[in-house]
Amino acid sequence: MVGKKVVHHLIMSAKDAHYVGGLVNGARIVDQWGDVGTELMVNVDGDISLFLGYEKIEFLSPVYVGDFMEYHGWIEKVGNQSYTCKFEAWKITTQLDRTDADLSGVETPGTAATACEPPVLCGRATGSLYIAKKDQRGPHNFKNTITRKENLNLLHFLFQGL
Predict the structure, then answer these.
(1) Residue 79 CA, distance from chain mean position
(2) How many whole angstroms separate alpha carbon 141 and alpha carbon 79?
(3) Please, which residues have CB within 8 angstroms of residue 120's CB and are 6 or more apart in sequence?
(4) Among 127, 145, 159, 162, whose Cα sits 20 to 30 Å from the Cα of 45?
(5) How many helices (H) and strands (E) does the chain have?
(6) What pLDDT score does 140 carry?
(7) Peptide bond before 62: cis, by omega within 30 degrees of 0?
(8) DSSP 3-state assignment of 127?
(9) Residue 96 to residues 12, 59, 107, 117, 142: CA-CA distances in angstroms?
(10) Which of 146, 143, 141, 145 is nearest to 46 (CA)?
(11) β-strand 23-24 against 17-19: which pairing, if any?
């Protein structure tokens, strides 16, 4: 359980812009960490949990519209009903116009992007999550219970009007 890790990938879209110049609000990073924490808890104890709060949040590099981000989370410590998790936000690609690249020969500079090598650490935090003892179910691996025939019937139903 300790060391269990989850990674989410997400591109920052225009709706994520909060400030002038396409800068994304740090709260967007925190929001994603909440989803990562929830997935961690579902994986280890079968419950969506309650997020109690953050002990420390650091924003280390700006995030902009067009950046591809990875949100990492892992369990550091397990208590009786609480879980201490670490979270990181990494920029893995960015738009070329946010770098020092020469764009003079690029026909469509607004869509030109590049991988961040190495990725850029944009934020980190420590968070605490809670699952009541009565709700701790342990990890579950449910198999897909829909049969191939049921799946085909569903597809037929969905597409019959097209």
Answers:
(1) 24
(2) 23
(3) 61, 90, 91, 94
(4) 145
(5) 2, 7
(6) 65
(7) no
(8) strand
(9) 15, 22, 12, 13, 43
(10) 141
(11) antiparallel
Which one, of 68, 52, 67, lies nearest residue 125 by Cα? 52
Q: How far is CA 88 from CA 11, 37, 38, 91, in A?
A: 16, 11, 15, 10
CB within 8 Å of 145: residues ≥ 6 apart:
none
State the sign of the Cα–Cα–Cα–Cα dihedral 134, 86, 116, 120: positive
H/E stretch holding 26 reads helix 26-45
* pLDDT band of 154, cuts 50, 70, 90: low
Give pLDDT tens digits for 57-110: 999 999 999 999 999 999 999 999 999 999 999 999 999 888 888 888 899 888
Total count of residues recorded for the chain: 162
Enter the tokens of residue 117.
Answer: 């090598």
Instruction: Please name the residue that has the structure tokens 């953050």.
Output: 54
Residue 77 forms beta bridges with which residues?
84
Mean of the per-residue pLDDT values of the chain: 89
Token couple for 12? 């920052």
pLDDT (tens digit per residue) in 50-67: 999 999 999 999 999 999
CA 153 from centre of chain? 34
